[in-house]
Amino acid sequence: MTMLVSGCERTPPDYRPEVTLPVYSEGDADNGKVIFEEACGQCHQLTPGLNKKGPQLMNIYGATAAQLADYDYSEGLKASGWVWNAETLDPYIEDNEKVITDSKMLADPMPDASERADVIAYLSTLRAPVPTLDEDGFPVETNVDSTDKQIVNNDEQIKPLRDKAIEIPAGDANKPAADFQ
Ligand code: HEC
């Protein structure tokens, strides 16, 4: 294969296989979502390729621990051999540093078992099919409508937004997104 030499090669996003386990029903997933956003969202999001301090968590339920090629895990988590289900997620969320030697996850412990069950229920609902990938491992765009008319219309819609975007004053908006720090 011919490779283009480039100074800024992008790492392709890694995808966990889609979850096949049934949803965990001993917690309230809606409440779990609220808790997740508060307690986990600062370090975790759900889009493959966009790891924050922690790895993205799409399709985490039933997945092997530390399996994403585009995230740098601790040796302890890599060596755990764990599969993420209620039995492993519960003590991990309760206090990860107690169960994984050398854990990199600096999250506060969550002593309330029913909150943990809610978070696990929510995590078990996070499932998305793996997209078709090109030969470099990037998702192939689908649903691209390429008729000329469509492009003109899109441009009409986008132009006012684009003009507006240029006026953003210097300040917070110009800082790099936290995801990429
Ligand atoms: C302060 C940042 C931070 C917070 C808050 C946090 N995490 Fe993490 N999480 C991490 C990091 C960093 C790792 C990687 C751990 C390692 O490599 O040892 C991780 C790893 C994980 C993993 C393993 C992922 C994998 O691919 O194997 C799961 C599951 C997880 N976190 C769930 C949660 C949940 C649920 C919460 C909220 C209750 C949470 N985390 C809160 C930073 C955080």
How are the SSEs placed, and which strands pair?
Elements: H1 29-39, H2 75-79, H3 86-99, H4 113-125, H5 148-166
Helix pairs in contact: 1-4, 3-4
The structure holds heme C.
Largest sheet: none
Stated plainly, the CATH topology is called: Cytochrome Bc1 Complex, Chain D, domain 2
Fraction of residues in β-strands:
under 5%
Subunit organisation of the chains: single chain
Rounded to an integer in angstroms, the radius of gyration calculated over CA atoms is 20 Å
Q: In which range does the helix fraction lie? A: 25-40%
**CATH architectural designation:** Orthogonal Bundle
The number of strands is: 0
The number of domains: 1
Derived from helix and strand composition plus strand pairing, the structural class reads mainly alpha
Contiguous low-pLDDT stretches (5 residues minimum) are: 148-152
- The helix/strand order is HHHHH
Cofactors, ions, other ligands: heme C
Query: What's the shape?
Result: globular
Tally of contiguous helical segments = 5
First-last Cα distance: 32 Å
CATH class: Mainly Alpha
**Overall average residue pLDDT:** 85
For CATH, the homologous superfamily is named as: Cytochrome c-like domain
